[in-house]
Amino acid sequence: MQQSKTLKDLAEYLGGTVCGDETFRVNGLAPLESAGADKITFLANPKYAAKVADTGAGAVLMAPGGESFGRNIIEVSNPYLAFAKLLTLFYVHPHTPRGVMPEASVGIGVSLGEGVSIYPGASIGDNVALGDRCVVHSGAVVYAGVTIGDDTTVHANAVIRERCRVGKRCVIQPGAVIGSDGFGYAPDGSGYYPIPQIGIVVLEDDVEIGANTCIDRAALEVTLIRRGTKLDNLVQVAHNCQIGEDCMIVSQVGISGSTRIGNHVTLAGQVGVAGHLSIGDNVIVGAQSGVPGSLPANAGYSGSPVLPHKEWLKSMAVVANLPSLKKTVSALEKRIAALEAVLPSN
User: Strand, helix or coil at 193?
Assistant: First the structure.
């Protein structure tokens, strides 16, 4: 059973302040609606503040100044982040090294760091270098010449192809493919000649790749995902793209070849990005948007093709009224026709 902790301990861990009984003990987290007295919950969105009055939780994480309704409170500046940190504290346990387990396949010239775990059915190619505490799960395939940094986890059935480089503390979820061939073909009469894709993919430190996401190797140089960027499930990144630091690329986004994306960019679900363009720092693109050209930094965009977000909202307000506008226009056309019929012709 998870060890319980006092609210004082948790507040010190989070850098927060207890309002209530510092000695009260909790042994985990739960949602506002279903938490029991031995759990701590959180309020991240003020519109749900009234639920604090009804929760069965023994304590609540919330921002300073909120109504406590007589509950034990830990005040923190960012309750959602505090919730994430407590999930880690209570439920995420250090991995126990397992070494090279039976039925794992390890090639020649492989360099293994300290505390690695290679599970049965994993395949490690020749001349691979794994850093300390790396974990490669069953069914994962690491091709020859790959380098993987310390504390990186490669989950089941993921594939990292030849010579690609993965940084420290990366997570590659099940079924992801790093370094698949880029989609490159030269017209050859009525057919197409495949262009060999001889580049690689580089993932910098703290990058996470979602399940069944595919990142194509470059035709000649590098497809690059910079430090701290997170890719959701089912994302496609084409050859020679470069994605900056701390970006959030949400599920089913498709990014065409040779696109440059700045730092701290968010592409919401199902965004499609054309190739050979650039997206500036701190851009947010709304779900299902189509990006046909470059976007300046520090702005939000929506729609297909994209517009600045406020302009898109105004356009959508008009679209919602199109049926009634059509009726109005039709009625005006009839009135004009009737007037023209009785007016003398010039």
Answer: strand
One-letter amino acid identity for 111?
A: S
Tens-place pLDDT, residues 233-243? 999 999 999 99
* Half-sphere CA count of 321, side-chain side, radius 13 A: 8
pTM over cut 0.70: yes
Instruction: Report whether 90 contacts 29 (CB < 8 A).
Output: yes
Nearest C-alpha neighbor of 170 from the set 180, 161, 162, 160: 160
CB atoms within 10 A of CB 248: 15
Query: Within 10 Å of residue 52's Cβ, how many Cβ atoms?
Result: 20
- Name residue 13's amino acid: Y
By C-alpha distance, which of 171, 231, 248 is closest to 206? 171
Given the residues 95, 155, 239, 276, select the one marked as catalytic.
239
* C-alpha–C-alpha distance, residues 163 and 208, integer Å: 19
181, 188, 183, 236: which is closest to 210 by C-alpha? 236
Q: Which residue(s) pair with 25 in the sheet?
A: 6
Q: How far apart are CA 200 and CA 224, in angstroms?
A: 9
Q: Reply yes or no on whether 239 is catalytic.
A: yes
User: Closest by alpha carbon to 86, among 151, 35, 150?
Assistant: 35
**C-alpha pair distances (Å), 26 with each of 52, 190, 266, 284:** 17, 70, 36, 38
**CA–CA separation, 203 vs 121, rounded Å?**
24
Beta strands at 165-166 and 99-100: parallel, antiparallel or unpaired: unpaired
Nearest to 134 by CA among 111, 155, 110, 153: 153
Distance CA 308, CA 168 (A): 37
129 neighbors 152 (Cβ within 8 angstroms): no
Structure tokens at 249: 């690329």
Q: Report the chain's terminal Cα–Cα distance, integer Å.
A: 95
Nearest Cα to 284, choosing from 316, 303, 205, 227?
303
Q: What is the CA radius of gyration of the chain?
A: 27
Give SS3 for 326: helix
pLDDT digits (tens, 9 = 90+) for 209-249: 999 999 999 999 999 999 999 999 999 999 999 999 999 99
